[in-house]
Amino acid sequence: MMVIWRVLADVVMYLHILLPILLVGVVVFSLFREVGFQWRLLCYVGVGMWVIMEIAPKFGWTKNCPLTDLEYSLRRLYDPSESWVRTTSLPATVIFNISRIEVPEFIFTVVFGIFLATVVGIVIARTITQRRLARNGPDR
Q1: DSSP category for residue 139
Q2: Which of 85, 98, 111, 122 ranks highest by number of CB atoms within 10 Å?
Q3: What is the pLDDT of residues 54-113, one digit of tens each?
Q4: Which residues contact 65 (CB under 8 A, 6 or more apart)?
């Protein structure tokens, strides 16, 4: 039974790693392609949830990301000693395990802010361009 909890905890951790990558892919795809309302809605809801999960620990609404809390709960079921607890965030741990470089935590917030500002800028520019084209028609 202990193996099941460990496998589930690992699955949650891998999902936690893949979720931002997939979200960035969806955002980039929906910004640079003509997509339908459903893709744009998925993009806005995904980015909104990401913003909330990024901001919530900063304001003390939650201690960690909900996926981190779920992973820790599953890991406690098979190893109550908590020898597996990370002292840094998941991205910092992954980067350290791959490159042996310690990245300060604030770097991830800065990168997230730059990404979010870029997405908002592109959405505003596309909206202005689409409205201008709808009003004046395409150039001939």
Answers
A1: -
A2: 122
A3: 787 778 887 777 888 888 888 888 877 776 666 667 777 788 888 888 888 788 878 878
A4: 16, 53, 57, 90
At CA 9, angle to CA 99 and CA 1, rounded to 5?
Answer: 135
Cβ-count burial 34-48 (b if 16+ within 10 Å, e if not): eeeeebeeebeebbe
Determine the straight-line distance between the first and last CA of the chain, rounded to whole angstroms.
Answer: 68
- Between CA 84 and CA 87 the distance in angstroms is 10
- Two tokens, residue 102: 């310690």
**Spans of all domains in the chain:** 2-136
As a whole number of angstroms, the distance between CA 116 and CA 103 comes to 20
- The reported pTM is 0.62
